[in-house]
Design brief:
The chain is of the alpha/beta class. Helix content is 28%, strand content 23%. It has helices at residues 19-25, 54-60, 139-143, 146-159, 176-187, 199-206, 227-233, 249-256, 292-298, 307-313, 318-330, 347-355, and strands at 7-12, 27-32, 42-51, 78-85, 97-100, 122-126, 130-132, 167-170, 191-196, 212-215, 239-244, 258-266, 301-304, 338-343, 362-366. The strands form three sheets. Strands 3, 4, 5, 6, 7, 14 and 15 form a seven-stranded mixed beta sheet that branches. A six-stranded parallel beta sheet has the order 10-9-8-11-12-13, sandwiched between helices. Helix 5 links the parallel strand 8 (167-170) and strand 9 (191-196). Helix 1 (19-25) crosses helix 2 and helix 4 (146-159) crosses helix 5 (176-187).
Length: 370
């Protein structure tokens, strides 16, 4: 293997009580020598872009269901160029542009490649853990592709059973998975009500094809009743599917606007990140609660939708999902929307920006180009 230059990587040395504490006290940046020994079926990726995701933040405090083992390098999803290949890799050349499979490589995985996070210059992956990129897709977009669109597909279509002609309420529509959900719902012929806290940010969601925009807070930033809005937008019927990556009080208000027999799809709890104990302790003393009387009287299906966990238990779910996502991508039907990019050395500011939801869509880190 040729000699390659030393890069840089981010390291989380210990869990914090909260993500903000973790990135302030337990995060550092260090030199990263290029790996010199590749297995015969492995490739070396020069990372060009890494998504800064909500899960990356929660993992720094151990408040995500999968915990890395500090010290570790964050970065669940990333893309780059092949810098070297093992002796048995014949179908990828140096310089090939790839996205790394977050089900195989990175700190959310449990196999031997969990040590290779995307907040770094270099990562090693098995050949089956990378996908070549179509020419039309940039590195920033690729780093925001699989997690967002696979989550939206699984939650909306596999779990939520969304059909053409139905109406879906997408909460948190300006976030990464929310935008993906809007796009996928439109691809299957559904009517989309895109909801969020910022009217200005929701205008960007309209560009993704949302049929209606719904601001969920008043002029003081407090949650406002919006049941009647949902009823008005659906001719009094209510929404068929609720896609909820937000959690908290907004979930309860959304349930009030569900149609009888509707499906409530739990995607996450971004508005209540501290339901679990910090510093990697087990238990959720501040867990969200839903009104069981409302669920009962409306005959609702409440569907927990852990994409990664379910797919690990039933790998057959993934091939048709990936096939459809690649078809949409190659046909131009979907394209990840990416917000600001930050240099790797500015990782703290990038993670704060994600925490504060300062932008629409994804956010990325760029390691130094070597």
């Amino acid at each position: 293997m040729i000699e390659l230059p030393t890069g840089r990587r981010v390291v989380v040395d210990a869990f914090g009580e909260t993500p903000l504490e973790a990135i302030a006290k337990h995060l550092r940046i260090e030199d990263q020598p290029a790996p010199t020994d590749l297995g015969p079926g492995e490739v070396l990726v020069a990372v060009r872009s890494a998504a800064v995701g909500w899960v990356d933040l929660l993992m720094t405090s151990g408040q995500y269901q999968h915990m890395a083992t500090p010290p570790y390098t964050p970065g669940l999803e990333f893309a780059g160029e092949i810098a070297a290949v093992g002796s048995e890799v014949a179908d990828l050349a140096v310089g090939t542009r790839v996205v790394v499979d977050p089900f195989v490589v990175g700190p959310r995985t449990s196999g031997p490649y969990r040590v290779w996070g995307g907040f770094a210059s270099w990562a090693v992956a098995p050949r089956e853990g990378v996908f070549p990129l179509p020419d039309r897709l940039g590195f920033d977009e690729a780093a925001n592709l699989l997690g967002n669109y696979e989550t939206a597909y699984f939650c909306l279509l596999t779990r939520g059973r969304l059909q053409a002609g139905e109406t879906v309420l997408v909460l948190g529509a300006t976030g990464s998975t929310g935008l993906a959900a809007v796009t996928i719902a439109k691809q299957v012929g559904a009517q989309v009500i895109a909801a969020g806290r910022s009217a200005e940010k929701l205008e960007a969601v309209a560009e993704e094809g949302a049929d209606h925009l719904l601001v969920t807070v008043d002029e003081h930033g407090e949650l406002r009743p919006f049941r009647d809005d949902l009823k008005a937008l659906t001719g009094g019927r209510g929404v068929d599917v609720i896609y909820d990556p937000v959690g908290g009080d907004v979930s309860v208000e959304a349930l009030k606007g569900a149609a009888f027999g509707g499906r409530f799809v739990l995607v996450g709890w971004a508005s209540t990140p501290f339901v679990a104990r910090g510093k990697g302790q087990r238990g959720a003393p501040r867990a969200n609660q839903l009104p069981t009387n409302l669920i009962m009287m409306k005959g609702l299906d409440v569907l927990g939708s852990p994409t990664v966990i379910t797919t690990a238990r039933d790998p057959s779910l993934r091939p048709p999902r990936l096939e459809q996502i690649w078809k949409w991508l190659e046909g131009g039907a979907i394209r990840p929307r990416v917000g600001p990019g930050y240099d790797l050395e500015d990782v703290v500011e990038a993670m704060k920006a994600k925490w504060e939801s300062r932008f629409v869509g994804g956010c990325v880190l760029h390691p130094p180009k070597l």
